[in-house]
Write a structure and sequence with these properties.
The chain has 211 residues and is an all-alpha fold. The protein contains eight helices and no strands. It has helices spanning 26-52, 57-69, 71-84, 87-107, 116-143, 148-166, 169-179, 184-206.
Length: 211
Amino acid sequence: MAPGKPTTGDQGPQPKLRLWTNPKAWPFLLTFGGQATLSYTVTAWMPALMEYHHVSAGHAGIVMAIYAFIGLPVSIILPNILTNLSQRYIKLLTIGAGLVALVASGLLFFQHTRSMFYWSSEAFLIGLSIGFFFITIMTMFVMKTKTPYETAQLSGMAQAGGYCMSAFGPSLYGLAFAANPAGDIQNICYLILALIMFLACWRVVKTETLD
């Protein structure tokens, strides 16, 4: 291009969004932070939890492989689905994923078993729900903003706050695990966090723009 020639993307200085005081932006942060907190906590502590319930190291490795692998098809298929579906069907998908997350949370209260089927099912459900909310919120950064500049601002705000939030997950779970490895306190916290993530993502899906 000729030097100095304006292009489609050359629109001069962009106004800075006040995202930290915008109530429509906070559900993005809570959704991203919720899935990140659950993801890092599960990755850090699920092997130790299975060991506490006398699951063999080999079986625990298979379970964690299931948890990691389920995110692959979700990350490949879901973005294309979200960008082509109407808001109504995106809402239905969000409800379905929220129910999966809540079922996975509820199953944690029945973890007193070494059954391979139980732990594989739990890993599958947790991985599926976390993968859905991660890919959905990353896609919504683009779908709910008007310009790449707004997308970058929203993504930066949500990821900065979300990763800060997630940094406390594994350490707090570790304190609870040390006090009572199979206690209900951490299970209740997991359930509450999954519910917050679901409701926040529901609000994100309903949001038209950040204005």
